[in-house]
Amino acid sequence: MTNAPMTDSPAQNSAFHGDRLRGILIVDLGAQYTQLIARRVREAGAWSEIHSATKAVEAAQHMDLAGIILSGGPASVYAEGAPQVPDELFRLGVPVLGICYGMQWMCRALGGAVEGGHTREFGHTPLTVDESKGLFQSVPNQSVVWMSHGDKVTRLPAGFQVLAHSADCAFGAVGDPERGFYGVQFHPEVSHTQHGTQLLSNFVIGICGLAGDWKPASIAEHQIQRIKEQVGETGEVILGLSGGVDSSVAAMLMHQAIGDRLHCIFVDNGLLRHGERESIEAMFGQHFGMDLTTVDARDRFLERLAGVTDPEVKRKRIGHEFVEVFREEAKRFTQANFLGQGTLYPDVIESVAEHGGQTAMIKSHHNVGGLPEDLELDLVEPLRELFKDEVRAIGRYLGLHESVLMRQPFPGPGLAVRIVGEVNHERCEMLRRADHIVTSEIEAAGAHHGLWQYFAVLLPLHSVGVMGDARTYEYTCALRLVESTDGMTADWGYLDRGLLRRISSRIVAEVRGFNRVVLDISSKPPATIEWE
Ligand code: XMP
Questions:
Q1: Which of 159, 365, 432, 469 might form a disulfide with 176, Cβ 3.0–4.6 angstroms?
Q2: Which residues are catalytic?
Q3: Same structural domain for residues 388 and 422?
Q4: Residue that is last in its domain, among 168, 188, 207
Q5: Pocket test for ligand 1, best of 314, 363, 418, 522 (most atoms within 8 A of CB)
Q6: CA of residue 306 to ligand 1 center, whole Å
Q7: pLDDT tens digits for range 141-186
Q8: Range(s) of the domain holding residue 497
Q9: Do residues 497 and 380 share a domain?
Q10: Ligand 1 centroid distance, CA of 299 (Å)
Q11: DSSP notation for 200-252
């Protein structure tokens, strides 16, 4: 039997071919890089979904399945408690690609052998291709791949051949093209592997036969259609718009689907950055013509924060107040029967925690996403299947401005977690002005390109200074500049001396109450990006 490609008809190989999305099932076997596999597959234009090994068979039955990828994982296939790949997955009649642990499991399950302890390959490793068709189509004969393994396959199952090897690994890549089974000992999903994206594309497009049409335009059109179907001819949706990428793109999709039957609610909690409210009103209300209500809740939030200095209490109160304000406002839309949310795919992937166990709670995050459950509204979540980079690409397709799409992350509790200690009107105003100086100077100099975030923090720490001939005793402003790719880890950033000098002088000269500016040079870990 040959598995690949499943069908020659382009229409049937489209991601959007039937009621269910057609694509690749990624089985998470505990690898650090599983989400990266899904993102690479999608960059290749194919839909993919991640599930744990225990849910994989059930997930396969619910998908319009074109192929399976088994991820890597930290365990040894022989170890007690190692994730078990169900045998059924090899009998579904679709191609399977095993990566690292996934390859070892597959080879052993199909009659080969795996052993540990002889060699360890880690990091950049030269790879020689032995079979340049199929999986290695358009991949040069010599390239560098990223290896990270102790165990390795020592005997191939019947029907398998060697596709590539390294100095220490005779079975660097193997396959049984007849059955559509492939394995790679290296990690094609990480950027250190040259041509990794090409290899994954060869698998999903060339071998699984997918059309490669999982692209921003078609995803957007598909989601708009789905919203129309879900909401129907007369349904109405309310959406908490924060101006962040997720809620903005969700609003754009819904607005295109149902027009004025989308009601956006923007809450001004008084903890926003300079000009934020005005620019949201101008863009979504005036420019895009959405039905947008701004709720001025500045006093309410400040009252709730009076006297509060504990960061967690601040976060909880702000989150709670937001829900209250939103609930009251939502009730005014008596016709609304749906609640729109910008939930993303990484928020709904369930499998990761299964292997990773509990992680310590560092900060209780609050987003516009965490809305009241008792409103009895059905959820509309058009981004639920998407990664952030896909959301940006769709936003771009729908005409959202780069300033929204590439906006630096801003926490739900806003400036409150950038004012150490008590939050009050005066401190908010000071920080807003200082922060505006920081961001506008950095952006004007084009220095923001390498930075993930750049902002000001108010420290309620008084120090002595001298201005004119007088003594001052005032607050401290900290500059927080960080480089990061996902906010999970970060390094501190730096600016040229002239720019730092200009920012510092302007803050002290223009914002009354600050007489000192300091630069935060802490990485994450051990510090976090926000101060609270
Ligand atoms: P930390 O401070 O934990 O922040 O290193 C990591 C990233 O998350 C952002 N952040 C938040 N984002 N709601 C959000 O949507 C929140 O409550 C929140 N708190 C922190 C932070 O700006 C950084 O990008």
A1: 159
A2: 100, 187, 189
A3: no
A4: 207
A5: 363
A6: 23
A7: 999 999 988 899 999 999 999 999 999 999 999 999 999 999 999 9
A8: 418-520
A9: no
A10: 24
A11: HHIIIIIIT-------HHHHHHHHHHHHHHHHTTT--EEEE--SSHHHHHHHH
